[in-house]
C-alpha cells in the first residue's frame, strides 16, 4: 500500500514540476490551469493523509505556515557583483575597446541580456534541492529570504534531471511583471493602502514580508542570469552555454537573451530592444553585455565590486526631476474634477512631458505636492506620466497646500465629494460646458426622455455646430436649423422635431431621471416620484424629508439638494417646463394607495409589446417593487419568451406567474 502511495506521490510531483517547467521556462504551457490545480490538489490530499511522506521540495510545500520575527544574515561566499554603467554608444565603444585590447582579439562575442529592474537574488541548490535564497545586500552580506523565495512558482524547489553540480548557486533577478504590478496597485488602492511607485519597489516590498503567506499572494517572477558558487562539476566555458545548462535544470532564462558580435551587434541589439521595451512583460532599464568567453572574463577580472567583462547600457531614464509649476483642474465629461500637474517640460521615458495626472485630493495629500515644488516624474511605457514624489529638501519658501476648488472652474457651480470616495465632481450637470454633451445624450436617451432619432452622434454634431447648449435648447430646434447639418435630410429633421414634441409628454420619474443627477438612477427617480408626487416637492425637500423616503440614503439626499441649489440647474428646469414638458398628475395621496403597492414582481424572458425596462418602469409607476431574482417574497413572476431558470423557480416556489397577455391586462386594470 505505502509503496503504491509513494509511487503516486512521485508521479504527481514529477508531473507538476514538468508542467511548471513547460510554463515558466519553455513558455509553452502543456495543460490548462484547471488540470494543474487538479494535480496539485490530488497531491496535497494524499500528503495530508500521509504526512510522513511530505518532503520540503514537494510542490505543495511552497508556502510556510509560520511568519519570521526577522531575517537572518547570509554571507555570500562568492561576492555578488554590481555592474558598471554605459550611458551612451561612446561609453559602450570604450568598453568594447578595453576588452579587445585586454584579451588581444579583433572582435568580441557578447551575451546580451535585458537588464531587469528587480532585485538580485542568490539561490543555493545542494544536490538539486533549493536550500537557501538570499538578497544581494551589499554584495558580501545579504538577508535570508528562503521562505519568501519558495513561494515564487517560477523558481524550482528541485532541479530537473540528474546531471547538475552537487553545489550550484544560481543568481538572477526577482521581478514583478507589469500586469501583476498594475493589478496589485489596483488592489492596494481599493483597500485604501498606498500604491507602489514602480514594479521594483513592489517586488522589494513583497520579498521583505516576514510572513511568506503575504509574499505568496504577490505576482513575483524570476529570471536567472549567472552562477556563483559551483562545486562538483565543470560548467561550459561560454556564458551563453552555461545559461543553456541552467535552463535544462529548470531555471528560467530571459527569452530575449542573445549572443551578439562586436560593438555593431551590441548597438543593433540595443536598438531592437529599446523598440520593444514597452511591450515586454517585465520592466527593464537597459541591456547587460557580458563577454561570452569565460576565459576572456578571467583575463579581464574585476575592479572593486564590478566585473571588467560586463557592462549595463542604460536606457533613457524613466524618472526625472522637474518643477511643478501649478496644479490645474480638468473637468471630465462626467463632471469629475481631476487635478493636473503643470510641469516645467522634461525629457523622460523618451518623450517631453509637461503634464502629469495627480488623480485626486488624496493623492496630492499623500505626496504633499504644492505648486513650486521640485518633483520626480515617471513615465514608464505608454502610461500617463505620474508624479512619484516631492523632493522636500528642494522646497523653498512656504508654498500653500492644494485644495480642490469649491466651485467648478468651467461653470462655477458648486463641487461635491461623496463620503468614502476619492472623486470631487461638478454639480452643474445641466449647465457645465464640460459635461454638456453627456448631459444631453443622457437626457434624450430611451429610458429618459426617449427622443426618437436623437442619437449620440447627432448630439455631438448639434453641440459642435452651436445649435444647442443645454437640454432646454433641444426644444427650440426647428426644421430649418436641422437641415443645415451635414447628412440631415428634411424628412429626418421633421421626424426629429416631431419626436421632440412627443417626448414632452412624459412621466415625473422619467423627467427626474433625465436630469442626470449624480447617483439618481431610474429606480431612485421612480421612488422619489412615488413618494413626493410632484416635482416641486422633490425640489424643495430638505434632507430630513428625503431621508424618510425608503432606499434613499444621505449621499442621494445630498446630491439632490446640491443639484437643486444650483441656480443654473434651476433655470434649465424652469425653461423645460415653460417649453411644455409635462406629465400626468399623480393623484394618489400616498404611496400606500397605489394599486400595486407592497407587491413584488420579477420579469423574466422577452416581452413582445415592451422592453423589460419599460415593463419594470410601468410596474413601478403603479407602486410595485421590481426585483431581479425570485424568492419566497416574490408575489408575481411575469414570464416572456425564453424565460430561463427564474420561471422554473417560480413554479417550484408556487408563485403566481403571468404571461404577457395577463400582464398587460393587469397594467390596464
Ligand atoms: C539584470 N539585472 O538583469 C546581471 N542583470 O550580472 C543581468 N544583472 C548581472 N545580469 C552580473 N541580466 C552582475 C549582475
Write a brief caption for the model.
With 669 residues, the chain is of the alpha+beta class. Helices cover 36% and strands 20% of the residues.
CATH-wise, what's the superfamily of the largest domain? DNA ligase/mRNA capping enzyme
User: What percent of the residues sit in helical stretches (DSSP H or I)?
Assistant: 25-40%
Low-confidence stretches: none
What is the tally of beta strands?
24
Distance between the termini: 76 Å
Report the top-level CATH class of the largest domain: Alpha Beta
Number of domains: 5
Oligomer: single chain
The chain-level mean pLDDT equals 90
- What is the CATH topology classification name of the largest domain? D-amino Acid Aminotransferase, Chain A, domain 1
For the record, the CATH architecture of the largest domain stands as: 2-Layer Sandwich
Q: In angstroms, what is the radius of gyration?
A: 34 Å
The coarse overall form would be: globular
Q: Which structural class should the secondary elements be placed in?
A: alpha+beta
How much of the residues is beta strand, in percent?
Answer: 15-25%
Helix segment tally: 24
